[in-house]
Specification:
mainly alpha
C-alpha cells in the first residue's frame, strides 16, 4: 500500500471533489466578457449564489444602459419597459408580436427568478451545475442586449 500526501492547496479539492469538477461546468472562455472575470472567480471559489447574483446584476445594468433608462428602473419592471413589445428601446420590431412578448417575459422572468430573490434575502444555492446553467443564461441575455444595442449604435 502506498501513501500519498495531499498538498495544502490540494486539500480543499480533496475534501470537496465536486468543486474540483466545477471547472468543467463553467469554462472561463465561454463566459460573456462583461462577467468573465468576476463571475468566474466567484463560481470557482464555490460562491455559487454570489456568482449568479453578479451575473444577473450585470444583465440588469446592461439592459438599463442599452435602453438608456434611469437608475430608478430596476428588476422585472425594467425588463418589461426595455423590452416592451409595443415600443421598448430594445425590442426587435421585426419579430412577430408573440416573440416580442416572449422576449420581454424571458428577461423579466430571469430577473424575477434569479436576481431579485438574492437582492432581498439569503438564497442557498449550493449546486454548481444549477449555478452554471443560470450563469450561462445570463451570458445569453447579455449577448441579446449587446446585439440589440449594436443595432441602435
Amino acid at each position: 500500500m502506498s501513501v500519498r500526501l495531499v498538498s495544502r492547496r490540494g486539500r480543499p479539492l480533496a475534501e470537496d471533489p465536486q468543486r474540483a469538477l466545477s471547472a468543467r461546468l463553467l469554462p472561463k472562455d465561454i463566459l460573456h466578457p462583461v462577467i468573465r472575470e468576476d463571475v468566474w472567480g466567484l463560481f470557482h471559489r464555490g460562491k455559487y449564489d454570489a456568482a449568479v447574483f453578479e451575473a444577473m446584476k450585470a444583465v440588469e445594468i446592461a439592459v438599463r444602459e442599452a435602453a438608456n433608462l434611469p437608475p430608478t428602473d430596476v428588476g422585472t419592471a425594467l425588463m418589461r419597459k426595455a423590452f416592451d413589445p409595443q415600443g421598448g428601446a430594445l425590442v426587435d420590431r421585426n419579430a412577430p408580436a408573440a416573440e416580442r412578448e416572449a422576449r420581454s417575459a424571458l428577461f423579466a422572468g430571469s430577473m424575477g427568478s434569479y436576481k431579485n430573490p438574492q437582492s432581498h434575502r439569503k438564497v442557498d444555492l449550493d449546486n454548481p451545475g444549477e449555478a452554471a446553467e443560470i450563469i450561462m443564461l445570463a451570458c445569453h441575455l447579455l449577448r441579446i442586449v449587446t446585439d440589440r444595442h449594436s443595432v441602435f449604435s
